[in-house]
Each structure stands twice: as structure tokens, then as C-alpha cells.
């Protein structure tokens, strides 16, 4: 199983469908399990951290016209410019996030607290020289979108976790997530948590440090033995 898929993604998998959106995995068999999201809002569809695939525009059209593309992690530029240019919409980038806008060959709109015309607020999670990450929270239906700090791909998970803190953040989990009370949680790596999301998030954050040794041991074993 490759760490990261490449080439034309034709066998993509839709996930996490609910009445206000859906997610997809461009390469379902890859270890990284890169997930992207289409959020249906009053302004139109906001596409989050997209990995572009053949036919994905048909998924967007099931909800509405595309209103914009959001980049929530400095290293998740992915195919955001390609999707934005195809739909003639801007790429939304948090105003405090550096080193992203200049790398995008598309119109960029800086956002501060809210994605324009939507109920999705922008929350700063991590800001340091090597990691800049924001989350989105939809007030209308308590949907939380976290691109990297937590995930459900296997290399995030220790023990009986349904959701795990990223291996590099295990000892300093993002405390700002503790303030949120989501009904569903969409992640940038893996399938989302569509039921009891707050319970899964709380469990992941509170046990992050204590379960770190077992996660590291599991990942090292997987790396060495495959």
C-alpha cells in the first residue's frame, strides 16, 4: 500500500455524506488517506483542501455551485488552485497564514473569522515556524473540519481510539479544540466521525500524551515490518 497515491485518480471514494455536504478520498488505498470536503453553505459549495479527481465536479453540483476553495493547512495547498480556477472562484486562506498565497496560481482572498457568506467560522489551531493550521466550525449544524491536528487514518490511532492526535502533536495536543462541541468531525486524513464526535474528540485529546508510546511503537513496527 503506497504512502501517497499519484497519477490520475479515477477510483476515488465518496465518504461522510450528510445533508450539508460530503467528503472524498482520491486514493482510498493510500496510507495517508488524504480526505477532501465539499461543504454546502448559503453562499454555495466551499471545497476544503481538495485533491482533484475526475468527476468530482458532479459531486459538487449535487449541492450547489462552487463558491470558493479553502486551504486550512500551510502544506495542504494540494489542488486548490486547479479547482478554484476551474470554477472561477477564490481560494480562501486565513489572514495570519504565511507562505501559502504566494504559491497559489489563483485568486486568493484572505479570511479572518468567517468564510464569506457562510456559517463556517475560522479557528486558529497551530501557528509556529513549521506548522500553521486552522479549523472550520459550522454553527448551523455543529460540523467541525480539522485538516491535520487530528485524524482517523491508522497512523493517527493508538489503542481503542476512533480519532487520534497527529503523531507530531501528541505531547502538545491543540487545546483550542477542547472549546468546541461538534456533532460531526471531518478530518484531512481518513474518514470523518459522523456520530458522537465530541466524545471521540475529548477522548483523543485527554489521552493523547499517555497513549503516545504505544502509537510510536505501532508506527515504527509498521514502518520496519510493513
How are the strands of the biggest sheet laid out side by side?
1-2-3-4-5-6-7
- CATH class category name: Alpha Beta
In CATH, the homologous superfamily goes by the name Ribonuclease Z/Hydroxyacylglutathione hydrolase-like
Low-pLDDT parts are none
Topology, number of strands = 13
Span between termini: 9 Å
Q: Report the CATH topology name.
A: Metallo-beta-lactamase, Chain A
Give me the strand/helix succession: EEEEHEHEEEEEEEEHH
Number of discrete helical segments: 4
- Major β-sheet profile: 7 strands, mixed
Briefly, what is this?
This protein has helices spanning 56-61, 80-87, 197-206, 212-225; strands at residues 13-18, 21-25, 35-41, 44-48, 66-70, 91-94, 108-111, 120-128, 131-138, 143-146, 150-151, 164-165, 184-187. The chain is α/β, with parallel strands linked by helices.
Question: How would you describe this structure in keywords?
Answer:
Metallo-beta-lactamase, Chain A, alpha/beta, 7-stranded mixed β-sheet
Characterize the structure shown:
- By secondary structure, the protein is α/β, with parallel strands linked by helices.
- The chain is built from four helices and 13 strands.
- It is globular, with a radius of gyration of 17 Å.
- The strands form three sheets. Strands 1-2-3-4-5-6-7 form a seven-stranded mixed β-sheet.
- It has a single domain, classed as Metallo-beta-lactamase, Chain A (4-Layer Sandwich).
- α2 links the parallel β5 and β6.
- The N and C termini lie close together (9 Å).
Helix/strand layout:
Elements lengths: L12 E6 L2 E5 L9 E7 L2 E5 L7 H6 L4 E5 L9 H8 L3 E4 L13 E4 L8 E9 L2 E8 L4 E4 L3 E2 L12 E2 L18 E4 L9 H10 L5 H14 L1
Parallel strand pairs: 4-5, 5-6, 6-7, 10-13
Antiparallel strand pairs: 1-2, 2-3, 3-4, 8-9, 9-10, 11-12
